Amino acid sequence: MGEAWPPTIGALLAGGLARRMGGGDKPLRLVGGRPILDHVVERMAPQCAGLVINANGDPARFASYGLPVVPDDVPGFAGPLAGVLAVLDHVARRRQAEWIVTVAADTPFLPPDLVARLHAAREEEGAMLACAASGGRTHPVIGLWPVSIREDLRRALVGEGERKIDRFTARFPLAVAEWPAEPFDVFFNANTPADIEVAESILAHARLS
Fold this sequence. Notes:
Subunit structure: Monomer.
Keywords: Cytoplasm, GTP-binding, Magnesium, Metal-binding, Molybdenum cofactor biosynthesis, Nucleotide-binding, Nucleotidyltransferase, Transferase
Distance between the termini: 16 Å
Helix content: 25-40%
Structural class: alpha/beta
Function: Transfers a GMP moiety from GTP to Mo-molybdopterin (Mo-MPT) cofactor (Moco or molybdenum cofactor) to form Mo-molybdopterin guanine dinucleotide (Mo-MGD) cofactor.
CATH topology: Spore Coat Polysaccharide Biosynthesis Protein SpsA, Chain A
CATH superfamily: Spore Coat Polysaccharide Biosynthesis Protein SpsA, Chain A
Main location: cytoplasm
Largest sheet: 7 strands, mixed
Strand content: 15-25%
Low-confidence stretches: 17-22
EC number: 2.7.7.77
Number of domains: 1
Shape: globular
Number of helices: 6
CATH architecture: Alpha-Beta Complex
Mean pLDDT: 91
Strand order of the largest sheet: 5-4-1-6-8-7-9
């Protein structure tokens, strides 16, 4: 883990229903002969003080990773904000860190400087939160969150029924860190079977740092 930013827990959000993939766990689909989640763990572990998987259902399917599996505690598949809250609560109970970084668990090409650049953008702008962008498009799920925000998030999610990350984060000063989208988008995520083919092509031809 780098020393230039505060200890940060990586939250791998795998709680989606994967309807466009035909059901099942998107992060366990294979790219380059390995589950997408393998690529995510490999890219995030060096940047983080620890990793947590947010997933619902039987946690045994992730047992081989040896990581904590934290389910949503808001019922009814309330979306990624529920996963963010679950991990914030998990980290707060264990007093592991004051920051978490969230990533979608189906993004196999995450940049090795993600955590450093999100912290740098937040500090430079004096913001409370930070999220990633590429090619002029923001990625609200790829974000940096202070553990101290969890009660605000709980009120929005449970009390107000908020479900969209960008509507929630718009309530606070938010910094954006931009990455290029060429020669490929480092935040590419595999939502459909066709996306798996694209990911295979990127893996075969791109130079991954």
